[in-house]
Amino acid sequence: MNCKDAALQARSISISLSALKREQKDAALETIRKMLWENRASIFEANRKDIERSKQENLPGPLLKRLKFDEEKLREVCSGIESLVRLPDPVGRVLSARELDSGLNLYQITCPIGVIGVIFESRPDALVQISTLCLKSGNSVLLKGGKEALETNRALYSCITDASQKAGIPEGWIHLLETREEVNELLQMDTFVDLIIPRGSNEFVRYIMQHSSIPVLGHADGVCHLYVDEEAEIDKALRLTIDAKTQYPAVCNAIETLLVHRAIAPRFLPQLAKAFSERIPPVELRGCPRTRQMIPCKPATEEDWKAEYLDYILAVKVVDTLEEAVTHINTYGSRHTDGIVTSSRERAEYFMERVDSANVFWNASTRFSDGYRYGLGAEVGISTGKLHARGPVGLEGLTTYKWRLYGNGHIVADYTGSTPKPFTHRPLPNRLPEQTAL
Amino acid sequence: MNCKDAALQARSISISLSALKREQKDAALETIRKMLWENRASIFEANRKDIERSKQENLPGPLLKRLKFDEEKLREVCSGIESLVRLPDPVGRVLSARELDSGLNLYQITCPIGVIGVIFESRPDALVQISTLCLKSGNSVLLKGGKEALETNRALYSCITDASQKAGIPEGWIHLLETREEVNELLQMDTFVDLIIPRGSNEFVRYIMQHSSIPVLGHADGVCHLYVDEEAEIDKALRLTIDAKTQYPAVCNAIETLLVHRAIAPRFLPQLAKAFSERIPPVELRGCPRTRQMIPCKPATEEDWKAEYLDYILAVKVVDTLEEAVTHINTYGSRHTDGIVTSSRERAEYFMERVDSANVFWNASTRFSDGYRYGLGAEVGISTGKLHARGPVGLEGLTTYKWRLYGNGHIVADYTGSTPKPFTHRPLPNRLPEQTAL
Hints:
The structure is a homodimer.
Chain A: H1 3-17, H2 22-38, H3 40-56, H4 61-67, H5 71-86, E1 94-101, E2 104-112, E3 115-120, H6 125-136, E4 140-144, H7 150-166, E5 174-177, H8 180-188, E6 195-199, H9 202-210, E7 224-228, H10 234-246, E8 255-261, H11 265-278, E9 284-287, H12 289-294, E10 298-299, H13 302-306, E11 313-319, H14 322-332, E12 337-341, H15 345-354, E13 359-364, H16 371-374, E14 381-383, E15 391-393, E16 399-410, E17 426-427
Parallel strand pairs in A: 3-4, 3-6, 4-5, 7-8, 7-12, 8-11, 9-10, 9-11, 12-13
Antiparallel strand pairs in A: 1-2, 1-17, 2-16, 14-15
Helix pairs in contact in A: 2-5, 2-7, 3-7, 5-6, 10-11
């Protein structure tokens, strides 16, 4: 099936998908989990082929590691599906309810977005995670994985389609695209596809964002900051800086720039430099002129304030005020995750109110910025855009809402003209009337 | 000030705007209302100049009517500001709150989007409505009105800037753009502007949507439907069809196509045709072949199913089933507002669940689809997109949210590795802890 036909089918199926009840969706998720486990031998075999081929093609080590799909990964994936089953249905929630006039009631009710296109690199577990999130939220999904994971993705996809069909989910809600040409086609299909979610390197995500007429949810950059305020406790600041930089430097929520208030810098920076130089591997510091007066390190240039190193490198800048820290972050940051270390609640609130990022933290490592840690169940990604879902995006971000108006022959003519009927605009409880079929 | 400088200033001011308290914003709104009223003479004088000039330039009658800004319009605008003052602050609402672990609390809190660009035609009252909605929601705003309203817009704008400055709102939160070149610049400024809201004709809105790299909220088309089900009451169906088509045909929420179940069509259509032919002005019907077997009317072509007449014309199609009606709407509709007339709750729920539109109505005229009628206070427009705000967009649609994490030196390293600390993920009440400054 070509990409356009797949999208057309996904669109048409999305309508009945939106009407599925929670029990049907959860039963299908259970079947998927069981069949993935039962078919593990052939999935692992497919993965061995991918790894074999990728080794021959000299895929870099970190990518090879991500490509691996073994029993441990499968167990994680299955336990992820179990948590998804336990989560409430994100569809059919009443967000607001209001009587407009006697017998004329308005409800704002969540519903699926429709058709989601997901483009991801390497990791085959992303295929399972994303498709089960889409199923639970009632969305059709078009998946394009990395070519290095071709065989594994096919095995997982075939398992998911078989299982969901067996569980009575209409065929055609999920499609696997395999070529780069199909991706370019997908990005233009704004009639059929409602949302694109890209997961991969920043160049990859930026390419998608620039080449699609469809709304894109995600983030290209993760230039995260930690600001050590003059009222910070030194030990806490050290602990948080080390965690935020080194616990896993290759990810988007690790910090790239450290801002330090000038009043605390002379005490804090030497201790930090010592801790970082004693680590294995050590962290390279790149400092502003004032930083370099306090500790020996390379100079930071304008480029360093914008850099996402994803490595054991940290840019350091001494600032005069809290305001300067906020302005630096709003100027150079990527609106992802930024934190303040301070003992002052007032200064923390000032920071969190004014830093224009999806996630703003007080006395906590930026590495907590993650759907699983937030308790959202799983995440489809982290959004640095401001519209729709922001920050880690779970099931809720895969839904939108409709306004449903229940009347009894009400016409607008009665509410206009020289003697208009008034509206009551009375709040109703946030649930549908009991006689509803929902 | 050129467009780029205006956008830059709006962006930088937006940070302190986001931290304004409700009292400050409401006091500024009150001052604006007072100063508009006090300066009414010069506003009306400016409007007379615009009307004079536009008459000489042969502006069409309906546009001239929209351009008029007299005491009645000013009273409406002022009473709109009064309702806005009464509405709760959309900023700082806690959407969710969760304990991740002891002393580590996560809050999802609403905040302004940032900088809104609004491009509108003709009606000067839109300038006041939009800028006051932006102020109440803490957003900076770049406004571009129609050139026909140049003098009126300048008078209103000057009143609003003076009043808000007097009330202590930082200068530069609002800018008036006046040239078409500035609009084209605005559409490219995705670094400074977060959202574009266009208000005007469909060609105009479609142009904006196709030429901006910034997210656009709004709608180009309003191809709305009413479906008369086999289980409809004839009288109710007549009443609703007449209201939805004729109460104000030039607006987006008037219906353009009527779908009628074949079982009721032979009784319903002749009565409708009679009612429409007796009206002044009469409504022209364009029917499918089966419609034309029952009533005399012009044939409808494929183009008619896609048409937004905005006039006393209605396309009519007889359908075999409820499913066919839903499919027709999802194929030809514009995802704006669509209604069903039926006595069956089950069939109404089926319709409302499956019609993929922002507003789905049961036994009510599509003309109710409006922010004021919905009780949202005022609206910046109606969105037919599925992401972010959908349907009539009021204050809430001008906000987004941040995730705030409050910790006490919490690091991720403790929650990973061979003996990870578990997360508690315990729900908290939807409010910030009491000691907060908010």
